[in-house]
Amino acid sequence: MALDNADRSLLLGPEDVPPALEYNAQGRSPFLLTCDHYGRLIPRALGDLGLQEGELTRHIAWDIGIAGVAETLSQQLDAHLIAQNYSRLVIDCNRPPHVASSIPRISEATTIPGNEGLSAEAAALRRREIFDPYHRRIEAIIDQRRRNQRPTVLVALHSFTPVYAGIARPWHIGTLYHRDTSLPPLLLKLLRSEPDLVVGDNEPYAVSDETDYTIPVHGEARGLISTGIEIRQDLIGDRAGQRQWAERLARIFGELEPMLRAERLI
């Protein structure tokens, strides 16, 4: 059962891993990859949040399959990847901390017992020890790249369920954006040139200030061109699918980079 940590000074103990996980930190690509829902770990102090193990392997806990895609894409592109180790059920690192879905009490009709009746102090502790260090690391890397006069294109990697609320989702992949009107048309053109893909334009989700954090805060607010990528989970449920999609995206982003340079966007 989960514990309310209002009276604890620390959430993460010596046996817990840091929130931010990095791959290929010396990567030379202009693409900076983030993966907010990479992991499904829960701090030991919170137990299992009152959930059965089967619930903790579902989409409510993490973005199924995206970790393998992100790692391989980082290698293929020679791009720096910053990922989040902890489950979004502990605190969602792609939600503004003030919204209810930041620490959900119910996710896709599943009640999260360990998040019910959570005190303000316990919620603040999760933000301080998991959410803030992860986003400070992204911020620091962007600052460092700017000091070194390195171009940065922010790409937030996610996956989505094939069916939601009983409705099948036809898209294989979607590109997500909000205020950036420069990058999305170029990326959509390349994705739609793939004859076997059904491509979502801001589908199955659209980026907004209320439902997203990484792109609005690290991308738009800092003047970076950026995009979210959503891949349907049944396509990346095993290592073969994850590698196939990483290789495809590496090729597409390889074609995108000279287009961005030609448009003087990077």
How would you describe this protein?
With 266 residues, the protein is α/β, with parallel strands linked by helices. The chain has a single domain, classed as Zn-dependent exopeptidases (Aminopeptidase, 3-Layer(aba) Sandwich), CATH 3.40.630. It is 30% helix and 17% strand. It has a seven-stranded mixed sheet. Helix 1 (66-77) crosses helix 5 and helix 3 packs across helix 5. The longest helix has 28 residues, at 120-147. The termini are far apart.
Q: Which properties best describe this structure?
A:
266 residues; alpha/beta; Aminopeptidase; seven-stranded mixed beta sheet; two-stranded antiparallel ribbon; 11 strands; 30% helix; globular
